[in-house]
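Example record used in the benchmark description.
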Amino acid sequence: MISMPPPHHLWHQRAPSAARRRGGARGSLGHLLLWSAAVALLAAGAVGSNFVAAEGAGRPALRLLPSRYPPKRGAVSARPASSSAQSEGQSNGIALLNLVTMLFGSNQVLIKTLETDDATAGAMDSCLCMTLRFGIAALALGAAIFVGRLMSGPQKEAAPTEVKAAGETMSNCVLICGAELSVWLFLGFMLQAVGLQYTTASSGALLGSLTIVIVPLLSLLDGRRINKLTWGSVGLAAAGTALFVGPNALAGAFCSLGDVMELGSAALFAVQMWRCEKLIRQFPESQVAALTCLQLAFVSGLSFVCVLAQGSSPESVVETVSAFPPGEWLQVVVMGLVTTAFCLWAEARALRDVDAPIAALIYACEPIWGAVFAYLWRGEMPDGPCAVCGAGLLLVASMAGVYASSQRDEEEPRSGGTVVY
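Model output (structure tokens):
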């Protein structure tokens, strides 16, 4: 059975071994270039299955950029302009979520490629890893925001009506919302890391996939109607994940304290996605990057507090980080820039147009991408026909979920609301 990458946010790491320190960054750089090339080649196919579902639902072709040419005079549109723009936004959001799913799936294999598998390698402290990864991501995204504002010049942007009604300025609202989302994300990571010490990776992957089920349940709290097709897709995704991870994970689930922690971690990640969808739609699109940057910075800060709470001094932390070889830094930087900064920004951007339950269903395909990259780099094969059947169910569930979102949009319009902290 392959070493399956856990769902969504599970990024296990190891400390650099002696072999890696001797090898330096040459092998890591080569593997990184191969990884980047493969991602570029597979990016076009990352949205293939959902593209078919979107086209079947009557949506326009996926476009990551708006058309530069206006429609011809006299042309009749099948939908109103607002509906067409909304459909295009959803298609772009689905494309982003599929790309994020692929990157999350490749992340675990990238880690295994950049590190040795010898028994002397120990486990890197989870809090220190999160401090570095999220810190690098926050700095990179913050620099991008700063450069973007310098190039665009000073712009005055009025706060939305909902923000004014809450009695807060735009900056305060972004700060508060970013802090809230970071707490859910940080607690989910911590509970996941501790839980993995008391359970197996396959059981953790299975329990973590329950985010697919929890997100629609949370959406019911908003008074939102979840149609039958979406619930059917959720059931298919859960069954597909169970088949994909194998019977051993099913037999061992809910048998230890670690399993309970993994279930709690899935619930926290579900709350983070649900709240992100709710909050991100209250701000203009220009604030998505700022909200994501604050979220990254808060998670990095909370992680560093945990490092100090474990008894480490700032001097010892600096000494430990300074001892990292170039290959280790390359690994952390890539994770910070690609699978942290970009992926969390893209997720927030997509949730402006794609409902959280549908996003969770798209993320259900992450194990498939993990298996694809595991086969390409490590020659690992899925564990028999059960894994293949599970992958098929996950693909069907993802396509059905995308189609279900179009049915919901036709039944009821998307509503706004005030900022709720």
